[in-house]
Amino acid sequence: MSIFTGTFRLQDITIMYFTALAALVLILVAPRAPAPPALPMPFHVPLDPRGDLQLAWNVSYATQEVYFELTVAHIQHGVLLGMSDRGELTNADLVVLWDDGAKSYFGDAWSDAEGHVTQDQQQDYQLLETSQTPQGFHLLFNRSFSTCDPRDYLIQDGTVHIIYGLLDRPIASLDRLNLSLIQTGMQRVLMLRPDGPAPSLPADAQTLEVLAPNVTIPGKETTYWCSVQQLPLNMPRNHIVMYESVITPGNEAIVHHMEVFECSPDIPDVPSYSGPCDDKMKPSKLNFCRHVLAAWAMGAEAFYYPPDAGLPLGGPGSSKFLRLEVHYHNPLLLSGRRDTSGVRLYYTPSLRRYDAGIMELGLVYTPIMAVPPRQRAFDLAGYCNSKCTQTALPPGGIHIFASQLHTHLAGRGVRTVLVRGGVELEVVQEDQHYSTHYQVGPYKVLHTTKYYTLPGFGIMEEMCANYIHYYPRTQLELCKSHVDADYLQKYFSLINRFQGRDQCVCGEAGVTQQFSALHWDPFSGEVLDSLYNNAPISMHCNQSSARLFPGQWDHQPLPEVTSVLQQPLYPCEGGRLNPGN
Predict the structure, then answer these.
(1) Cβ partners under 8 Å of residue 146, min gap 6
(2) pLDDT in tens, 452-470
(3) d(Cα 313, Cα 536) in Å, to the nearest integer?
(4) Which positions ≥6 away from 46 have C-beta within 8 Å?
(5) What's the pLDDT band for 21 if we cut at 50, 70, 90?
(6) pLDDT greater at residue 134 or residue 198
(7) Are 151 and 122 in contact, with CB atoms under 8 Å apart?
(8) Which of 145, 207, 322, 397 could form a disulfide with 450 if both were Cys (CB 3.0 to 4.6 A apart)?
């Protein structure tokens, strides 16, 4: 058996299964599984900033498995891939390929609270194939969504934090490996995707590319770059039916996410601009370019609209200006890179039956909804109540086909639930490992829904929103709530009296100042939590003009919701996870 000298050889891994079986009886409890023929890998993402590690995968809902292909451009003595709750190196589920200087090994492992690695007694990763090509060393393996092993990560809908590492020296045994002592990194992916073939495009589909204008990527870690593009002159009304990313070759690991916004039709002219989005000298009119037409993040595939609907583009009553925003993540501080990445829109002049729309659900952006300091977990809930949906939606209801979750830095998990008659009917979208740094959207094809109340639930955040994509388009653009302001003032008065303050500035100072003046202890946090879960709410039931629908929207009763929905069942629980559930 050869010692590694920069590459693994296929026979090294193959021989391992025969010569090393006795030494690895705990980690090689089954023979090497046969590789499926010509397995496609439709999803892929670069793992490291240079793009030297590439991960591709496919999802089989029939067998409840994920197939992984890991490509390493320059491998030395091994590589590891893992999953953990937030991308930590500790308490991670790992699969490791390593050598001891003479033999090569592959196996399932886990890391403890200090990052020490241990071989897992239950081996749930199956090695399928290895190969060496000019692109690097390829490792094909698979694993079930749920293994019923408490050491393994449960693969489910939402964000998955992937960790990776490279071994630059042999290790005598896996238990001598500590993740804190090797080169590691982290990437986020949306692993479980709806399956099925992509819809076909109409024969008269045309394309419009909204691209960065040959930008020199700044040599700093984070840059948001904005540019303005004008639609073709006298462009008639069309429907966007699909869009996809266009990434400049070589920049796949730097272009983190992109969004295309339509400017307000009330602004007749938007100046040309190409520069940092936070530049104080950028034209103020760019602030009126906020209507989302397309959103993409690293690892996302093309987005298709349903056959009966399309997103309006061009024509009377629309703006002729678009704003492209590109987030460059450049942790290696590379300089001199040029970029023309962007989004390719596919549109058709043959208008579909329905205009698609985007509606914002969740919490109103206001300091009234606050998270107390030093909280391990704190739930906030925003509602789109039945009064608003009965006022603004058609009698036949709407069809939701995708959604995009959004929070700021405190967000750790987000859930949106369909409610009718006070009973939860369906989880619209949920991400238990949410990260504000990875907001792919819109991404999830959902079941058709009818007339309903839609509350959006957020966990541990200062902001919680879900942008649902639906048809037919209505005038309801925003349906959100916050706790009634008068009841919040009663809270401040109660806590100040309890804490021995004779005078209260309640109502005289701003909400942020009043929160800052409180002495935060378990009691004040518990009372605030009780207030948010019991007090009346104020609804923002807004038209596309940003004006409220006619009616009284303050002092609304908090909707009563009975939680009856269970977590998805997995094989060890007697059930299966299906795409779109």
Answers:
(1) 64, 154, 155, 570, 571, 572, 573
(2) 333 333 323 345 777 788 9
(3) 40
(4) 53, 54, 55, 187, 252, 253, 298
(5) very low
(6) 134
(7) yes
(8) 397
Candidate list 224, 365, 451, 487, residue with the active-site label: 224
Cβ 289 vs Cβ 262: under 8 Å: yes
Q: Round to whole Å and give the CA distance between 456 and 399.
A: 17
Give the whole-angstrom CA distance, residue 194 versus residue 60.
10
Q: pLDDT band for position 420 (50/70/90)?
A: confident
How far apart, in whole angstroms, are the C-alpha atoms of residue 108 and residue 117? 10
Q: How many residues does the chain have?
A: 581
What DSSP assignment string belongs to 379-420? EEEEEE-HHHHHHHS-TT--EEEEEEEE--TT--EEEEEEEE
Whether the CB-CB separation of 329 and 46 falls below 8 Å is answered with no
Cis peptide before 37 (omega within 30 of 0): no
Region class of 498: left (phi > 0), else alpha (psi between -120 and 50), else beta:
alpha
Query: Catalytic site residue 61?
Result: no
Q: Which is the catalytic residue, given 77, 406, 469, 482?
A: 406
DSSP-derived letter for residue 350 is S
Nearest to 290 by CA among 314, 322, 320: 322
Could you report the per-residue pLDDT of 187-207, keeping only the tens digit for each? Answer: 888 888 877 777 889 999 999
- Is residue 218 within 8 Å of 328, Cβ to Cβ? yes
Q: What burial class does residue 561 get, using C-beta atoms within 10 Å of its C-beta: 0-12 exposed, 13-18 middle, 19+ buried?
A: middle
For tokens 């003032």, what's the residue? Answer: 489
Global confidence as pTM: 0.73
347 is known as an active-site residue: no
Phi and psi (nearest 5°) for 6? 120, -25
Which residues lie closer than 8 Å to 156 by C-beta, 6 or more apart?
145, 192, 432, 568, 577
Higher pLDDT, 119 or 500: 119
DSSP E strand boundaries for 171-288: 183-190, 206-211, 215-216, 222-230, 238-246, 255-263, 274-276
